[in-house]
Amino acid sequence: MTIETISRIGRPVTGLRGTHDGGIRETGAESPLMKTPTATANPRSKITMTRREKIEAMLADDPNDNFLRYSLAMELRSEGANAKSLEIFDALMKETPPFVQAFFMSAQLLVDIDEIEQARTHLRDGIDQARAQGDAHAAAEMSDLLATLGEMGEL
């Protein structure tokens, strides 16, 4: 996460300081990595913004940010908006290159709503994409989930 991303989601960045081992740590009482509020005040309207509203506001500035789109799909899933979440995951799977995490999360959501065959299809496609992108970890996770659905995933 970059400082720009951190400051865009409404959490103050008070400063960064180098550490003795060459790393960076944040200074100040309101370090964004130490405190993750679920809502912050919008200074223009004096109302509280939800996490979803913050993500949507950032997407208005950068609608092609795949991580923000993925984050919105995850937030919608947590709110129970499964159809909209799946719609965003599907769009991410069609990107060039496909957003590999979307295959896994959409498959998990499909399992939750008892769409097992479609989940298997997403997992098989996701495993192929993960391998093509050199993401062995994602391929293994999807293979494990596929195996639990009654079909062996190949590693």
TrEMBL record:
InterPro entries: TPR-like_helical_dom_sf. This is Tetratricopeptide repeat protein. Residues 1-44 are annotated as: Disordered. Residues 18-28 have a biased composition (Basic and acidic residues).
